[in-house]
Amino acid sequence: MAIDWIGFGYATVVALGGVVGYTRKGSIVSLVAGLFFGLMSGYGAYCVTHDSRDVKISFFSAFILTIVMGMRFKRSKKLIPGGLIAGLSLLMILRLVFLLL
């Protein structure tokens, strides 16, 4: 049983992104969404830690973030936060797919 450090790191980055969005812009939506998806990704990493084939929750949260933040990046053309989170989420999806192979 190996600990999914990459998954927990990803969850931390997502949650901290929500907190930073709140502190810089006062956006409560960023705070709630960041904490929600951070906790969801953290729980997904916990599930992957216990069973390396149990990637459903991690995959779902990374997929949603890839779509939402990718659309945000396309609209605003700003690398942070949209492009960064969309890129990290896409890398997380690829990692999870390789875990299943």
Task: Name its key features.
86% helix, mainly alpha, 101 residues, single chain, 0% strand, 4 helices, globular
Written overview of the protein:
This protein has four helices and no strands. The chain has helices at 5-25, 28-50, 56-76, 79-100. The model has no long low-confidence stretch (mean pLDDT 95). The protein is mostly helical. The chain starts with a helix and ends with a helix. The longest helix is centred in the middle third of the chain and has 23 residues, at 28-50. 86% of the residues lie in helices and 0% in strands. Helix 1 (5-25) packs antiparallel against helix 4 and helix 2 packs antiparallel against helix 3. The radius of gyration is 13 Å and the shape is globular.
Could you give a quick summary of the protein structure above?
Helix content is 86%, strand content 0%. The chain is an all-alpha fold.
Mean pLDDT equals 95
Number of contiguous helices:
4
The structural class is: mainly alpha
Q: How would you characterize the largest beta sheet?
A: none
Measured distance between first and last alpha carbons: 18 Å
Proportion in β-strands: under 5%
Q: What are the low-pLDDT stretches, counting only 5+ consecutive residues below 50? A: none
Query: What is the helical fraction, as a range of percent?
Result: over 70%
Radius of gyration: 13 Å
Mass-distribution shape: globular
The total of beta strands comes to: 0
What is the chain-wise order of helices and strands?
HHHH
